[in-house]
User: What shape does this take?
Amino acid sequence: MLINKNTVETSLVNRLLNILSYSLLGFVLSYLLFSLISYTLFSSQPPHNAFGMIPEVRMPTFADLRWVIATGDCPININDIYNGKSVGCDPYGRHGIGYPPMSLWFSRFTGVKGAHTPLISLTISLSFIVVILSQLRSSLRSGWFLIIVGSLFLIGFPVQLGLERMNIDILIFLLLYLSTLIFSFHALAWLFPLMIFVIALKYYPFFAFFALILKGLPSKPGFSYPIPPWLILSIGSFVGLSLSLPWSTGGGVATVASGGLASHGLLAFGYLNNTLIDKFGLLNGRWIIRTLFVLKIISLIVGGYMAYRLRLAKILTKAIEVHTSKYNSTRLPANFFPSLVVSMTSVWLGCYLVTISFDYRMIFLFPVLIFIARAVQLYPVTRMMILQRRALICLLISMLASMLIQFMGYAFQDPFTRLGIDAIAEFILIPFYSSSLCVIVLGMIIMARRPIPLLAQLAESGEL
Assistant: This one.
């Protein structure tokens, strides 16, 4: 029996790549678990190797969650903190509070104390990692490619920054994941209070629920839905925003991102002024800033046109359908993964368009990142054109690069070198894939709202 030499070589290469991918995932999980447990057990002075890949941005252990819990545990009136009459009780001396009052109300209601912060942080962190691994569960059976993508995401700067500070965005990620699952089961009675709570923690989860409203549930009232679902979700969003937006736009909220390494945003330009003008003078510095502005606009146009022209929304939807039918049992609704991609991606897009965000907010890109990788992997099954596959690869590389490039920036001490490295992400990579993702999400919403043909409905129900 003759054995094709190329087949043997391909098999050996795949086996080697599988070994390398599992080794990388094992290293990443070991590093994160070591860092989290070290922060939990040695909260006053953790080992220097804990989150050792981000030493320049490390703060005291779980600083963001400790800020919330310590302030909530503080024996002063919460309104005095937001009115500026009190500096709060942050153990590290930060004034005010960086969150709407729902986080403080909830902290006081549950009775948690500052001493509970390490254990609570570890629980939330482990839950986050478990959710990520559960999303990668099918990847463990489908080859090395998705394992490497998932490992790079977990070791990336946004995840490490969020876990190291235990930013409340990690909790919001978990709550949005749960909300999308409840939405997929059409359990509006459970979704309504949860969405109010999530939006009240921070206003930007509104973008997720707004996208889900557009994506649609049954819109006509009936026995199961005496009130139109879109109206229920709209009321929940309005109530949540009324509990968060006034404090997010007014006083009491602490320092926000201003641009540069560790933050990003469509409107992130002001941080360039001092460095470029000091380096090149007023006239030349302004011309460079204008050039970078034009570069960002070009990147936005190229990314959006590419996604629209190559119909990447249709390709990604097809990949999600193939993935669901191949690896998912009937335990989850068929629309869960499309809804997850739409909702999570909309959170990041909304923040990118209207704010300047710290990089830990990129964690909301995980569902779309992993399904873009899945679409690349399913290239023969989805019958996409080679140009579409290359476009998805470009999207995947640009997203991963924007999550890893910060490590390179912090390796240099010269601020101008750091600015140049940051400019690659801020003015090329992130605008490119942000406009592509915007077109993809809009395309998925439009396709979800199209009526299903009768034959397709019969086939889906098993009557054909």
Remarks:
- The radius of gyration is 23 Å.
- Residues 218-223, 454-464 have pLDDT under 50 and may be disordered.
- Strands lie at 263-264, 357-358.
